[in-house]
Write a structure and sequence with these properties.
The protein is α+β, with helices and mostly antiparallel strands. About 20% of the residues lie in helices and about 35% in strands.
């Protein structure tokens, strides 16, 4: 017994499958990206360096930026070379008083040893 299949239905099935696969990939990459919140009293200029690309973003007071650092990246606060922080791409962090803090971390772990100072406990380095 031979079955005939309409060529068009096969193409639309492939197109639908491709669209679903792309949607799943986009949702997964956004879920693994870092989120930065400005909890301070001033807007903050963030310079985000990922690989060879640089992006400057001004983060207003009380605002949140998501989808930052799909993979590891360097965040610089207000163009200050001494205020550079490395993110893995899955953190939720806040900027306050010129420092970057963890809002939450996976499995409740503390920041790595040597990353905290007396002035800014929990500060990411």
């Amino acid at each position: 017994m031979n079955f005939c299949r309409d060529r068009r239905s096969g193409r639309s099935d492939l197109l639908a499958l491709t669209v679903r696969a792309i949607a799943v990939l986009l949702m997964t990459s956004a879920a693994s990206a870092a989120t930065i919140t400005n909890r301070g009293d001033n807007e903050v200029k963030l310079t985000i360096t990922q690989g060879s690309s640089h992006q400057d973003v001004v983060l207003p007071i009380g605002k949140v930026i998501g989808g930052v650092c799909q993979k590891s990246c360097i965040i610089r606060l207000n163009d200050n070379v001494n205020d550079e922080y490395e993110l893995d791409g899955s953190e939720n962090v806040s900027v306050e008083g010129g420092f970057l803090y963890y809002d939450s971390s996976e499995k409740g772990l503390a920041p790595p040893a040597g990353s905290a100072s007396k002035e800014g406990e929990g500060k990411i380095r």
